[in-house]
From TrEMBL, chain A:
Belongs to the universal ribosomal protein uL23 family. Component of the mitochondrial ribosome large subunit (39S) which comprises a 16S rRNA and about 50 distinct proteins. This is Large ribosomal subunit protein uL23m. It comes from the Eukaryota. GO terms for biological process: mitochondrial translation. Keywords: Mitochondrion, Ribonucleoprotein, Ribosomal protein. It comes from Pieris brassicae (White butterfly). Its main location: mitochondrion. It holds the Pfam family Ribosomal_L23. GO terms for molecular function: structural constituent of ribosome. It is found in: Mitochondrion. GO terms for cellular component: mitochondrial large ribosomal subunit.
From TrEMBL, chain B:
Gene3D superfamilies: 6.10.330.20. Keywords: Mitochondrion, Ribonucleoprotein, Ribosomal protein. The keyword Metal-binding does not apply. GO terms for molecular function: structural constituent of ribosome. GO terms for cellular component: mitochondrial large ribosomal subunit. Signal peptide: none annotated. Pfam families: MRP-L47. This is Large ribosomal subunit protein uL29m. GO terms for biological process: mitochondrial translation. It is found in: Mitochondrion. Its main location: mitochondrion.
Amino acid sequence: MSTRWYPIYQRGNPQLRIFLPNFWMKLVHTPLRQQPNIVHFQCSMEMTKHDIKNYLEKIYKVPVVEVRTKISLGKFRKDIGKGYVVKDDDIKTAFVTLPKTTTFEFPNIFEKKKGDVEDDLKSLEETKKTFKQYIERNRDRSDIPSWFSI
Amino acid sequence: MNFSLFKTLARRTFTICLHTKNSTAASVTSKTKSFHTTAERKDLMEFFDIKKNWNETNIKVGRAWRLDELRIKSNTDLHKLWYILLKERNMLYTMEHECNENVRLFPNPERIDKVQESMNNIETVVRERNIAYYKLETGETGERPTDDVVNAFGLREKYQQKEYYLPKFMNTRWVRPYLEHGYINSVAVKKFLRLYNEKKYNEERKARNRNYNHVQQLLKRFPNMDMDVLKAEYPGVDIEKAKRTRKARGHYFPKY
């Protein structure tokens, strides 16, 4: 909605408000080591620094000290099959500074849990067993597809 | 579209909510205890899924909000729901990005589509209400008006109007090239239009001939086929004429 057409702002008019913003933002890893109060976001291309600040403060209730933005050019590459040139989308990155006292650590989402390795081994065993069964069953009818059974 | 309706209604419902809350606060407390709400997390961790779903391969969720369900909601409810969906979408985008970075499969990517569909439906409902309000109050839809214009190539085009700081007649930079000399009368545009029309005409002609020949071949191979179906399939072809041609005659005695 915020990317819709808004009336032109004339000085003295009431401030333009967004009721249903359709801006998106995603939190991404900081590529290099940063201060603990610096967070990197990727956001929609239409967002300004003010928008980003307001977005975080009003919707997520996160205090923001400073916002800097960068637009990185999408890569130009050749399509593998066809050979024509394809351009990837540009990316707007926001470097957001939180107050000194707050810290943010990017969580490790793909941490292995305790039982995970055992579960994997168990499922592997199971697949091996079912494959053996399938081979056993299709010993004398090798030309019949696997889904065909009585 | 203007959101004045939305604003006033939202304000009104909000005030009504406040009034009711104040008057019946004492009596309601016992009933509201059974009411379950999710705990509010006001944090950057809102950008991530709940911890239970990390490292999960299959996350089951419900369906998207339907239009009919949203139509019976109040404006305030829609407004709140919009922000919930917005946060959910941001969360999903973040998780998807993280999965891609770590070369993992993003579990149940259709969640993004479901959220997007719900958001589109909310937008539709708000738009409907706005149009209804505007029709009642002003007799117009309140949508962004469109114009039929001729563009720089001399082709007809829909133009979505927008506001300008300068009125048309004062904008000399626009008026002079566009109206006085005109793209539309220039030699280049005339040449373009001539070639463009020729191309279009040739395409139509070729399609006509192709269909005519194809019908003849069909009549030759299948002389007893259903003529009504053939007529419906190739409405531009004169089938009676096609029957009488040499191409349509097979290697057998003609019936007529």
